[in-house]
Design brief:
By secondary structure, this protein is α/β, with parallel strands linked by helices. The protein folds into two domains: 57 residues, no CATH class; 306 residues, Aldolase class I (TIM Barrel, Alpha-Beta Barrel), CATH 3.20.20. The chain has twelve helices and 14 strands. It has a twelve-stranded mixed sheet. Helix 5 packs parallel to helix 8 and helix 10 packs across helix 11. The protein is globular, with a radius of gyration of 20 Å. 40% of the residues are buried.
Amino acid sequence: MRYIKKLTDISQLSDAERTALQPVTELFAFRVTDYYLKLIDWNDPADPIRQLVIPRPEELNAWGELDASNEAANTVMRGVQHKYPDTALLLCNEVCGAYCRYCFRKRLFMNENDEASKDLSEGLAYIRAHPEITNVLLTGGDPLLLSTRRLKEIIDALRGIDHVKIIRIGTKMTAFNPFRVLDDPALVELFAKDSTAEKRIYMMNHFDHPRELTGEAVQALDRLIRAGVIMTNQCPMIAGINDDPAVLSDLFRRLSWIGCPPYYVFQGRPTAGNDPYKVPIVRGWEIFREALRYGSGLARRARFVMSHETGKIEILGVDEKQIYLRYQRAKDADLRGRFLVYQRNDDAYWLDDLVPVKGGNAPLFPHETPAEMAISGPE
């Protein structure tokens, strides 16, 4: 597998395109695998796989912030985030197999950034000292770009902490380079040993479009499943890539067939550089709702959520006047489970763009209001 870091190494791009895109790559890192480039239909300028990894001039538009969800506020030490009591994030790598153009952590790939840490000893000590942490997410960057030996060191250390019951690995390598799994039996053996009956390893895969589910990708997932790893998929709603009910429903159904059911669809964060990939909340909800009209229940398990600074907020529904939300998780214990009503705004991209309806922020729960149950499900 070859990793390509220069636009000049992509023969399908014209000299004019390379010249126009060079300023983008000077600001936001570029990287892709030769495997993934083969999935692009180069005859189609709007090809969704192309949109996913090939820079666009519009990324230079002034829009958003580098840390749109203020992850800095939850960083307890270098490489460790602790936002919710039972979950800690270890940023164990600052490189990905390829760089999604809409990435919400693109700041990690800038030269001056040092948020990720190769030395996790202090982070592991922090987790060890906090028995409320039962769930650890390895992220970054992509943990599967670490060597199998290094991954084993990290996983063995976590398995030595009794209160850590779940290890999650956030990765897009099964899409960008499935041969990371197919060509490394030791990696599969590691997961088979450490994904046990009472302490599972979860793979949080990231497939954005059905065309990423190639034969090689499906085979890689199958090997991990047979090793005892629990599969899920999460992806953002991205303009030009999956902001189409037919595409999204096809993705959901195919994921359910191969044992990697949809988990979350994220409202894209207002991250700097992401102007060409943004989808307004209302339009995103309408696309998501329509996509959920098809397939079995296993294909319709995804929730449409927003990873806001204050917590993970599920978008439950939209009517002619209002948008209905609920905190799935919240940094502030008083917000957990709270039901929120905001004025409908078809131009809003983020919670901060919305105006609350007076009296609409009282904490309500399903057993207290049938109306909430009515709007929270798919059609």
